[in-house]
Design a protein that fits this description.
Blueprint lengths: L2 E3 L3 E3 L12 E6 L7 H17 L5 E5 L21 E7 L1 H8 L5 E6 L4 E7 L5 H15 L14 E3 L14 H9 L10
Parallel strand pairs: 2-6, 3-4, 3-5, 5-7
Antiparallel strand pairs: 1-8, 6-7
Helix pairs in contact: 1-3
Length: 192
């Protein structure tokens, strides 16, 4: 079974003075994704649908425009985005490995002060399911979610088969929506 760590969320700043995470975001999808931009936007819709299915509100407005919300190497600081916006960019698995020294499929740099983030996704990820799962996971980080050790998109490893907490295909669960609500100081759905 192949196991790859998807990513760690980077808090690039002192985590004080932060503003509350929102329920609506502008999402700048890098046109360099080419044919895969549609898959990225579909993953945003999956998040909206999962939230709605569990009684939560989330609006992600995709804008097919290049913007770097902050400094790509150190996380957002003086970028091109406003509060409650994030960007998604293509990168390569080799570039991710060079930064992290491990097998990452994607990486997110989030600025808690401004509720903005830069997301990077490996465009040479081997399968469509893996690609979609990775986008959904990293978007979770952009939405202020952390890793969990349960059946959720925020479980930090991708697997080729569904075992234990490891979801092998894209699937945002009730537990993800519960965390989404929790970090926004709402109780959210009860999940069985
Ligand atoms: Zn992660």
């Amino acid at each position: 079974m192949k196991k790859l760590i998807i990513a760690a969320a980077m808090c690039a700043c002192a985590c004080e003075g932060k503003i509350a995470a929102a329920d609506a975001y502008n999402v700048y999808v890098d046109p360099a994704f080419g044919d895969k931009a549609g898959d990225v936007i579909a993953a945003l819709t999956m998040w909206e649908n999962a939230a709605a299915a569990n009684g939560e509100t989330l609006k992600l407005t995709p804008i097919l425009t290049y913007k770097m919300c902050g400094n790509a190497s150190n996380g957002p600081a003086t970028g091109e985005c406003s509060e409650h916006e994030f960007s998604i960019h293509p990168t390569t698995l080799a570039a991710l490995a060079a930064v992290a020294g491990e097998k990452l499929l994607g990486r997110t740099y989030r600025d808690t002060r401004l509720d903005m983030a830069d997301v990077f996704i490996g465009v040479d990820i081997s399968t469509p399911a893996e690609f979609t799962t990775t986008v959904e996971h990293e978007v979770g980080h952009a939405l202020a979610l952390q890793h969990v050790n349960e059946t959720a998109i925020m479980y930090p490893e991708w697997c080729s088969t569904t075992t234990a907490y490891c979801i092998g295909a894209h699937d945002i669960t009730c537990l993800d929506v519960q965390q989404y609500a929790s970090v926004r100081d709402r109780i959210g759905p009860s999940c069985n």
